[in-house]
Amino acid sequence: SYVDKEAEKQLVSSLKPFIPNVGFITEEDTIEQEEKEYTWIIDPLDGTSNYVHGIAPYNVSIALTYKKETILGVVYDPLANEMFTAIKGGKAHLNNEVITVSKRGELKNSFIGFGIPYKMDSKAETILNNTSKYFGQASFRLNGAAAIELCYVACGRYDAFFHSDLSPWDVAAGAFILQQAGGKITDYKNGENYIFGREVVATNSIIHSKIMKGLINL
Questions:
Q1: What is the mean pLDDT of residues 32-51?
Q2: Angle, helix 146-154 to helix 168-180, in steps of 10 degrees
Q3: Residue 124 pLDDT > 70, yes or no?
């Protein structure tokens, strides 16, 4: 949308001076896409459909990588005025307060966020039709803003989150914040290709194997 593009232009122009010869990976392609030693990964408006329809949540997501390793993550929800942050070697924070993942160890009564591809496919239909079968008595939410939902896992609001069709700018910042808060994130094969591989499974780490078992059935 116009709002996405204008927001991205402003973010790029603001961030570019901080690091010489920095690369950018962005959603709206307002600047040449190139990964360099230092690279900003930006989603100027995650949850665009929510924003357009005047509902929450939507957010800004910014990550900085150094030699392909994330070293900084920021996710900001302007409606709630909540800023999730993390830096390499430090803890994760929400508005300057340290956050950690939940300690729930069972799927029963767990609170799980999930996403489906923008264009519905058979896999998405399977997920929608079989959540209770494969994940027991968990409660599910579909909010449409992956970056902030990863942060919900980081601060213990969600116990887990999974999605099968994401882009690097949806994932990079929130994944890093989650990890610094003690959580675990993988792809659907329990591997580490979650930033560029589209599939994401994020949990409090305790129930990760249980979530993976359910996803294998899907």
A1: 93
A2: 10
A3: no
Q: Is 207:166 a contact under the CB 8 Å cutoff?
A: no
pLDDT band at 58 (very low <50, low <70, confident <90, very high): very high
Longest dimension (CA), the chain: 52
**At 7, is the secondary structure helix, strand, or coil?**
helix
Residue 124 to residues 23, 80, 88, 159, 194: CA-CA distances in angstroms? 34, 29, 35, 21, 18
* 121 lies in the same domain as 179: yes
Rounded Cα distance between 89 and 9, Å, is 30
> Tokens in use for 99?
């956050």
The rounded distance, in Å, linking the Cα atoms of 111 and 3 is: 32
Q: Are 183 and 202 spatial neighbours (Cβ–Cβ below 8 Å)?
A: yes
Shared-domain flag, residues 76 and 129: no
pLDDT at 125 over 80: no
Angle value at C-alpha 138, between 133 and 143, nearest 5 degrees: 105
Q: Could you tell me what percent of the chain has a pLDDT over 90?
A: 78
Domain range spanning residue 115? 111-217
> Domain for residue 104, yes or no?
no
Residues 94 and 115 in one domain: no
**Two structure tokens written together for 74:** 């920021």
- Rounded-to-integer distance, Cα 115 and Cα 113, Å: 7
Residue 33 has pLDDT above 90, yes or no: no
Q: Residue 132, by phi and psi: left (phi above 0), alpha (psi -120 to 50) or beta? A: alpha
